[in-house]
């Protein structure tokens, strides 16, 4: 088991999928991060040297991921609701925010 930023990963897991398991890191960020640290696409977590794991942890700690990102998104939505903007009111009513159709197909509203 390899410990990266508070999570244990089995040694047989791909580094690519291990990085994408963090909230806020997708395929593009993963690819850039692996290229920056010279990690191959098919590398496994267990084959990484300790220096690479420390570098990876340092890079991840500088990024806004997991709970910090969730908190930031919630604060942005709360700010919109408090200001009374159109988007904020739509969030408060649990309705589509980005102009989706609501005349029909209102399955989102029934939840």
Describe this structure in words.
This protein has 5 helices and 2 strands; from the N terminus they run ββααααα. It has helices at residues 15-20, 27-36, 50-62, 67-83, 86-92; strands at residues 2-4, 7-9. It has a two-stranded antiparallel sheet. α4 (67-83) crosses α5 (86-92). The longest helix has 17 residues, at 67-83. The termini are far apart. The model has no long low-confidence stretch (mean pLDDT 92).
What labels would you give this structure?
111 residues, mainly alpha, 48% helix, elongated
How many individual helices? 5
As a whole number of angstroms, the C-alpha radius of gyration is 19 Å
Mean pLDDT: 92
Q: What spatial form do the alpha-carbon principal axes imply?
A: elongated
Q: In percent, how helical is the residue content? A: 40-55%
Which structural class do you get from the secondary structure elements?
A: mainly alpha
Low-confidence stretches: none
User: Terminal Cα separation, in Å?
Assistant: 40 Å
What are the secondary-structure elements, in order, as H or E?
EEHHHHH
Number of strands: 2
Bin the strand percentage.
5-15%
């Amino acid at each position: 088991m390899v410990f990266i930023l508070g999570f244990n990963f089995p040694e047989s897991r791909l580094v690519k999928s291990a990085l994408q398991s963090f909230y806020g890191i997708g395929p593009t960020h993963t690819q850039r991060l692996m290229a920056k640290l010279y990690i191959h696409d098919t590398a496994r977590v267990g084959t990484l040297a300790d220096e690479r794991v420390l570098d990876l942890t340092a890079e991840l700690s500088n990024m806004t991921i997991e709970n910090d990102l969730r908190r930031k998104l919630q604060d942005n939505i709360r700010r919109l609701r408090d200001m009374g903007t159109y988007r904020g009111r739509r969030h408060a009513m649990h309705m589509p925010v980005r102009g989706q159709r609501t005349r029909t197909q209102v399955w989102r509203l029934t939840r």
